[in-house]
From TrEMBL:
The chain crosses the membrane at residues 28-50. This is AbgT family transporter. It comes from the Bacteria. InterPro entries: AbgT (IPR004697).
C-alpha cells in the first residue's frame, strides 16, 4: 500500500510557485510583450495629449508616440547600442 504523505504549508506554497512559474512564457517573449505594450501605451497617451511637469526643471513634457516614422527609425538604429550598453547584460 502506498502511504499518502502530508504536505506542509511551505511545500504547498513552493509547489504552487513552481506550477505558476512553469506556466510563464519564455523570458524573451515576456520582453517582446512588454516592448509592444510600451509602444502601444506611448501611442495611446500621445493621442490623448498627456503631459507632465518635470519636477527638476519645471518644463512641461508631452508624451511622444513611438509609432512615428522618426521614432521607429530611431528604435531600429539604436537597438544594438541600447542592448549592449544595458548594464545588466
Amino acid at each position: 500500500m502506498e502511504e499518502k504523505r502530508k504536505t506542509g504549508i511551505v511545500e504547498r506554497v513552493l509547489s504552487g510557485i513552481e506550477r505558476a512559474g512553469n506556466k510563464m512564457p519564455d523570458p524573451v517573449m515576456i520582453f517582446i510583450i512588454l516592448i509592444v505594450l510600451i509602444i502601444l501605451a506611448s501611442w495611446i497617451l500621445s493621442a490623448m495629449g498627456v503631459e507632465v511637469v518635470n519636477p527638476a526643471s519645471g518644463d512641461v513634457v508631452q508624451v511622444q508616440s513611438l509609432l512615428t516614422r522618426t521614432n521607429l527609425i530611431r528604435m531600429i538604429e539604436e537597438a544594438v547600442t541600447n542592448f549592449t550598453a544595458f548594464p545588466a547584460l
